[in-house]
Amino acid sequence: AQSVSQHNHHVILSEAASLELGCNYSYGGTVNLFWYVQYPGQHLQLLLKYFSGDPLVKGIKGFEAEFIKSKFSFNLRKPSVQWSDTAEYFCAVNSIYNQGGKLIFGQGTELSVKP
Amino acid sequence: DVKVTQSSRYLVKRTGEKVFLECVQDMDHENMFWYRQDPGLGLRLIYFSYDVKMKEKGDIPEGYSVSREKKERFSLILESASTNQTSMYLCASTTRGRFQYFGPGTRLTVT
Predict the structure, then answer these.
(1) Distance (Å) of CA A111 to CA A11, A83, B68, B100
(2) Does residue B26 contact residue B91 with C-beta atoms inside 8 Å?
């Protein structure tokens, strides 16, 4: 069955610490990959996406993610987090043959950054 | 900027009531989606639509129905609300080659 797994349910970091959030997927065929972020009280918004090409993708606010096909992974990274990065982060996947089609989401990772 | 709007941010309904959640997008997107978001479960797809009057079941369609009479509007209907449908409901839209844009969500409480 198609699924997305995020390893950490809740991560607590101090400001300036480095961040890595794990995401693994199980999906037959070639995929598109996404990270969405939901800041407190705000709507879900796109952080970054991978459709094809360079497996290292850069997003907004200094975030990046690396697609490792052999590991079915798309981990999110940031070298130095800020208090304003406190949010919930969701990894998602869909098929390239169905662009614009339905997404499969992970369970979400809540990130708390202590000032 | 793409805008996806939802009719209510907060809604409180009683068990057995019929509930309508409305979603409107202003970018002429073909595809629209309804998800529910629950802690620890992420987002789960309820229904989606690829065109006017077309609908397809998602992963958890039981207890829900949808309507898409116009391209810009996608409605989610709870025929007889139950307490286990208390949740955050998110609408999204997209077009081919793009990512999904989400609305602000409707937090529904069924008492």
Answers:
(1) 5, 10, 36, 22
(2) no
Average pLDDT, chain A: 93
Write out chain B residues lying below 8 Å of A103, CB-based.
33, 43, 45, 100
Dihedral (Cα; B106, B109, B110, B111), 10-degree rounding:
-160
Cβ atoms within 10 Å of B80's Cβ, excluding its own: 11
A10 lies within 8 A of chain B by CB: no
Backbone phi, psi, residue A54, to 5°: -55, 120
Residue type, A19: L
Give chain B positions within 8 Å (CB) of A106.
Answer: 42
- pLDDT bin (cut points 50, 70, 90) of residue A100 is low
Terminal Cα distance for chain B, rounded: 37
| Chain B residues close to A6, C-beta within 8 Å | 42
Strands B10-13 and B106-110: parallel
Q: Are the Cβ atoms of A46 and B99 closer than 8 angstroms? A: yes
Q: At B93, which amino acid appears?
A: S
Q: What percentage of residues in chain A have a pLDDT greater than 70? A: 97
Q: What is the pLDDT of residues B65-101, one digit of tens each?
A: 999 999 999 999 999 999 999 999 999 999 877 789 9
| Alpha-carbon distance A17 to nearest alpha carbon in chain B (angstroms) | 25
